[in-house]
């Protein structure tokens, strides 16, 4: 392969990598676990990516009386959940909320979350403002989003 | 999340008073103080029989009297005759508890015909909110048939103490609260003896592989 061709391939790779970077804040792969029985709380997870630094300051959803940002940590074998004030989104670095880490706690659910359903969730960012995303409900205790969530 | 199986196999029992006995005694005392976290740190060796027949098999478990999701009284004696997978949690827990119960369900479905030899047990650490009715609706959502237990605050405390389970109420704004709690799946043999344990790091496949070896 000639040097020119390598250079061309490299520049194409850089260009496509640049294209993959969103030009504005994006929220993707929003999903929640189905809630068992009359469970009053649920958890939603998603990925946030922004070209500029931002901060998620609050969340809300019509399915719950209250939605909060929570951290979850394992200290030894002890699970602890705590509300957090906000979540920093560094420029260009995706922030993933996932089981076993930070999550959006849906408190006082107005309805049971059934697998296959979806519901709206509004995230308020310090700079980007409010973003409403569709959350897909996966199996109770699922560890990640199914294929449906990836399209939102 | 990758999960790892963790079991312990301390040295052969030796007469009391010997350094080895004192070492085991010191370890057990440490368990009581530090709880399951310390215990799991010590538990790293994996044997076909788990820790059955060793000093540790008596350190976890013990008598309890609770009420199941149908209002029926259940004691530790009722769990004998089958293998038990015991997990302490609460229904307001949105993350760790459904994950553990779903992992147990997946592990059991991997066992095929041997699944009938295993009984999953969910014991609440939040008896204030988890009534038998609440538990019934909760565990019915999982594929595995789960025995769900609650009781008075004292009865639950006694059961948790036997299993070295730590739990504490963490108040939140607006009068709500969450529960800090040990998130461990205990494997008890059909005689009611502690045999192995799994943490949030154990994958369902690891749980089912381990159970297959234990059940034989």
According to CATH, what is the topology of chain B? Glutaredoxin
| Name given to the CATH homologous superfamily of chain B | Glutaredoxin
Order of helices and strands of chain B: EHHEEEHEHEHEEEEH
CATH architecture of chain B: 3-Layer(aba) Sandwich
CATH class (first level) name of chain B: Alpha Beta
Architecture of chain A, CATH level 2? Answer: Sandwich
Largest sheet of chain B: 8 strands, mixed
CATH superfamily of chain A: PCu(A)C copper chaperone
Gyration radius of chain B, rounded: 17 Å
Tally of individual domains of chain B:
1
Give the tally of β-strands of chain A. 10
Number of domains of chain A: 1
Radius of gyration of chain A: 18 Å
Model regions low in confidence, pLDDT < 50 over at least 5 residues of chain B: 1-17, 40-45
Instruction: Report helical residue fraction of chain B.
Output: 25-40%
Percentage of residues in DSSP E strands of chain B: 15-25%
Number of strands of chain B: 10
Please identify the structural class of chain A as seen in this structure. mainly beta
CATH class of chain A reads Mainly Beta
Largest interface: A-B, 34 and 44 residues
User: What's the order of the H and E elements of chain A?
Assistant: HEEEEEEEEEE
Key terms for this structure?
heterodimer; A: 152 residues; mainly beta; Immunoglobulin-like; 10-stranded mixed sheet; 12% helix; globular; B: 216 residues; alpha+beta; two-stranded antiparallel ribbon; disordered N terminus
């Amino acid at each position: 392969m000639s040097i020119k061709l390598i250079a061309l391939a490299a520049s194409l790779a850089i260009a496509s990598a640049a294209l993959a970077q969103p030009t504005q804040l994006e929220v993707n792969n929003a999903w929640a676990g189905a809630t068992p029985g009359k469970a009053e709380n649920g958890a939603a997870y998603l990925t946030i990516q922004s070209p500029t630094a931002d901060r998620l300051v609050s969340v809300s959803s019509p399915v719950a009386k209250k939605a909060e940002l929570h951290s979850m940590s394992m200290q030894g074998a002890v699970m602890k959940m705590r509300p957090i004030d906000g979540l920093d989104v560094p420029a260009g670095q995706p922030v993933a909320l996932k089981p076993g880490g930070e999550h959006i706690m849906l408190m006082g659910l107005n309805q049971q979350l059934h697998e296959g359903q979806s519901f709206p969730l509004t995230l308020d960012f310090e700079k980007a403002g409010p973003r409403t995303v569709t959350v897909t409900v996966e199996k109770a205790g699922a560890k990640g989003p199914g294929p449906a969530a990836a399209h939102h | 999340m990758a999960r790892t199986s963790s079991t312990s196999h301390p040295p052969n029992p030796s007469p009391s008073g010997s350094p080895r006995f004192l070492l085991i005694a010191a370890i057990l005392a440490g368990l009581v103080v530090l709880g399951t976290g310390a215990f799991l740190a010590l538990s790293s060796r994996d044997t076909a029989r788990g820790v059955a027949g060793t000093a540790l098999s008596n350190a976890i478990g013990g008598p309890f009297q609770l009420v199941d999701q149908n209002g029926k009284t259940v004691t530790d004696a009722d769990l004998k005759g089958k293998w038990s997978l015991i997990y302490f949690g609460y229904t307001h827990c949105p993350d760790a508890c459904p994950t553990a119960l779903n992992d147990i369900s997946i592990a059991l479905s991997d066992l095929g015909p041997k699944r009938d030899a295993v009984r999953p047990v969910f014991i609440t650490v939040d008896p204030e909110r988890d009534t038998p009715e609440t538990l019934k609706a909760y565990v019915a959502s999982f594929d595995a048939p789960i025995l769900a237990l609650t009781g008075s605050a004292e009865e639950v405390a006694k059961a948790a103490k036997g299993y070295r389970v730590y739990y504490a109420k963490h108040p939140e704004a607006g009068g709500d609260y969450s529960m800090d709690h040990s998130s461990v799946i205990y494997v008890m043999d059909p005689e009611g003896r502690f045999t192995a344990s799994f943490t949030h790091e154990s994958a369902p496949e690891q749980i089912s592989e381990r159970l297959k070896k234990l059940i034989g």
